[in-house]
Amino acid sequence: MGGIQVVTDSACDLTPAQAEERGIRVVPLTIRFGTEEFVDQIELSSKEFWDRVVTGPAMPETSAPSLGAFQEAFLEAAEAGADGVVCVNLSSKLSATHQSALAAAEAVAGTIPVRVVDSLTATMGEGVLVLAVADLVDEGKGLEEVAAAAEDLRADCHVYSSVGSLDYLKKGGRIGGAAHLVGSLLSIRPVIEIRDGAVAVESKQRTRARALQYLADKVLDAGPLVRLAVPHGMAEDIGDFLALIEKVNPLHEVIVTELGPVVGSHAGPGTLGVCYQRAR
User: pLDDT tens for residues 164-181?
Assistant: First the structure.
């Protein structure tokens, strides 16, 4: 095999097919509905997750992968002949996933070098960063160069979303700087941003239509883009939104995908987001 193995976690919302195509190893988080527990994307697909959210009484919860899960991924890379691993993870301000990866990297240090990068973002913001890292690996870059570039490129990756309600973020404890708005949003549609690795309210719009136009303007005003992804959780107006950004022409094909269970557990149904990497 040789070269560098890219590892990430399932909060990146890359589909299994996308990850396999680029040779990316995805370590799954765990999703719980009451007493039932599922391994993300292995025992529970994004579609199955949203079906449960809508029909089930239990509030979904998530838990980070264990040290052992990351250690297994790193050791498998070593066994396959990789020279090293770059592991890009969900923001350390949102999950213990990054800490698990760091501990696993230390545990395998005598077998294979691992560089762990805090993406400081989530969902396809993390996903587009992982794809950028995979591009560097395909170009033949070395371990230290790829890891340093990943930390540099994360400043170019942005995530904004319109959520149907702040209730899920509040109950999941991920609301961060938006906490002061709870209870005063009867006529407000907030636009959420992942800022410096945490959830914050970027804008307050009066209607869903205005919130989606605000998201579209964010994309249109961002300048040249390397990648653009539009993850959503059962957003019935996804078609309307895509029409608003149809003139956007990133370097790579626009990715429209279901918001995965990890972020979806905290964002809730109706969430529609834009995740992009700006060109330099």
Answer: 666 665 554 444 544 445
